[in-house]
Every structure is written in C-alpha cells, then in structure tokens.
Amino acid sequence: MTQPSPSQTGRRQPALTVTLLGGALAIAFEAYGTLTAMPAAAEELGRLDLYAWAFTAFLIGQVLAIVLAGRLVDRIGPVVPLAVGVGIFIVGLLGAGFAPSMELLLITRFIQGFGGGATNLAFMVVVAQAYGPHERAWLMSLLSFCWVLPSFLGPPIAAWITTQFSWHWVFLGMVPFLIAVVIPGIAPLSRLQRQRTGQGAPANQVPIWAAFAAATGAALLQLAGQELGWWGLIPAVVGITVLLAGLPALMPPGFLRLAPGLSSVMATRLLISGAFFATESFLPLLLIQMHGFSLGEAGLFIAIGASGWALGSVVQASRRLRIRRDQIIQLGAVLIAAGMATATFAAWTTSHWIVLAVAFVAAGLGMGLAVSSTSLANMQVSAPQLIGRNTSSLQVAEGLGNILVTGAAGGIFAALLDAEVTVKFTPIYLLGLVVAVLAVTSSLRIGPVRNESAGVG
Would you put residue 343 in left (φ > 0), alpha (ψ -120 to 50) or beta? Predict the structure, then answer.
C-alpha cells in the first residue's frame, strides 16, 4: 500500500485530525462514563454480581473486532473498517441506552466493544499511513490527551447525568456527538483510500479462529472465577487450554517466551493494561464502600487520578526526554508497579483517600508514558505491509490483558462479596501489583528502540 508523504500530512489535514481526535474523545468518554455509571446501573438492574462482566463483555467484543478489522485493513485499507466500526459502536450505544435488564446491557456492551475495537484499530493504521514519522508522536500525544480529557470530565459529567437523569443517558448522549465529529473526516479519509495500491493482504494475517479462541478462553476463565465451587474447575481448564491454543497465532513469534522486539512490546502492553484498567474498574466501588464517597465524588476522584496520564502522554513526546523509546516504556512500567503497590497498601490499611489518589496519579503517569510508547515502538519496528497485522496484535494484547485481569478481579470480588471491605478489595489490588511487576520484567526484554521525537537511539 502506498503512504502519503509527510508533506501531505499532519497539520495540513486539520479535518482528518479533528475526526481522529473527536472519535477517540467519544470512545474514551463512553469508557469513563461507563466506569462511573456502572455502580448505579448494576444496582438498579439488580445484578451487582455481574459488575465485572460489563467491562469484560466490551473487551471480548473488542478483541474479536480488532482481529477482523486488522485483516480487512491490510486487504482494503482502514477507511471501510473505520466506517463500519463507528456504525456498530453507535448501535451498541443505542442498545445500552434502552437496555431494560443487566443481561441485555451486557449484550450491548459486547456490541460496543466490537465497534470500538474496529474503530480504534483503524485509527492507529490511519495515523501510521497518513502522518509522517515526526508527526506521529505529536498526534499520539494528542490522542492520549483525548483519552485523558474524558477521564477528567467524563466521570463527573457521567455522575451528574446519572443522578439528575439516568445512567441510560450516559450512552445515549454520545450518539449525536460521535456523528458530528465523523463528518469532517469523510473527504480526507476518502482520499486516503484512493491512494492505496491494488496489493492484497499479506500471507501471515492473524487467523480468525485464534481470535475466537482467545476471547472464548478469556470468557471461560472469568466464568470460572464466578463459579464458587468444584464446577469452576471445568471452565478454568478449558479456558486456559483454548487461550493458550489461540494466543501464539495472535502474537508475533516468541511471545510466550518474551522474545526481544515486538513480542515483548506486546507482552508489556498486555500486562500494563491488565494491571491498570482492572484495578481502576473497581476504584469507584472501593471509594463508595470504603470511604463513603458519593457517585459524583468518586467520579471527581478518577478525574484527579487521570492527571498523571495526561502528564505522561505529554512527556513521552517531548524532545527533551533524551532516552530511548524502550527505556520510556520501562520507566512507565516501574511507575505503574509503584502505583499498584501504594494502592494495595491503601486498601489494606484503609488509609486516607489521598494515598489512593497518589497511587493512581503515579500509575497514570506510567500509563501515559508506556501506552503511547508501545504504539510508537510497534509502528517503528513493523514492516509497512504488516502495520495492520501488528497493530491488531498490539490492541488484542491490550484487550486480553484487560479481560484476564479484570475477570480474575471480578472472580475475587464475587467470592468475597459479603466480606469486610478491606478483605474484599486488597486482593484485587495485590493482583494488580503482581501483574505490574511482570510488566516491568517484560519491558526489560524489548531491546533498543529509537526515540524519533528526541533523535535518541
């Protein structure tokens, strides 16, 4: 496939940039809005035991869509998968907004995940194809900011909408905004599609069966965590078997042994995403049950904690950060581990909520450094004809990390649902710490990757 020259891209395509940033903003607001609104939704629908499934249902759909979209992107370009993904995401928003039961809400969350996965995958490929190498770090910083901004504004706005109207409007209110931000990008995306050559997809695409195997295995593992008894061993064993069968086909060679290069980039993204997002998913419940926060106060707390991510996303693109890209990833992983250790201490000792705030500012700073940097490392190391496949693998890794660790945390929460609040939440944050330490280990295996922003490496 052909790629536009840097002179044709970046700030000279403001309409395309508006669509990319606006789309990321909409999807991120929905994610953080759901995080804030789910305690109210689960309580109203009477299924608090299914709380974690509201997040993993989204992620299971996301994993499947990422693989399917990655195959389509390499064959026909990112434009059609992007359009289809946005359409499916809107259908999921409408379905969730009108969901009368928790079971139907979970189905629509799966649909949202499917649409969001296709959209995010296509976004990353558009960045790789339509922007020059020096502009990518700048744009990744802006895209990260679009994920960070809703973490500031999304929780309090979602809490206000939930308390003043209903949690249903957290989903419905995003539909007109998403449609509006897509319109400016139609023309530049059409031009990008016409610039493709007629080459087909590469021979070593991610197999569809592997995506279904990984998603099914992850779902079975969460189901096993919800089954409190010997019967839980059956889905656990089947889930592990199916997951291990599909995972090697989804990832670069050497993934399971942490081979240097892309394999360790993928593994690090899987582990940092699992550690951070799983523990963040239970943060509103912890604040409400341990510290007596209202839903609105919990939303504001998440917004405060997101300041670290905002700072990290800016710092990783700075020319003054004179270290290699792999070293930025390592620094991010260490900060996430430090944040998880502090959060575990805070949950165990019922420390003042300020300790939790410090923990998530530190972990967010690490995520701001590492998430953008793993995406940039993937773009730099990947061959042009494999950018769709490898971006698919990277996002699958993020989704699987989130599913597996959130699923395990959900199993812990279900098992200890009636326990003391300290006993209930401490193991969840200890799990996040263990996963974050594994992320530090995998980040050390990446090997040298040039920092294009600072010209180092």
Answer: alpha
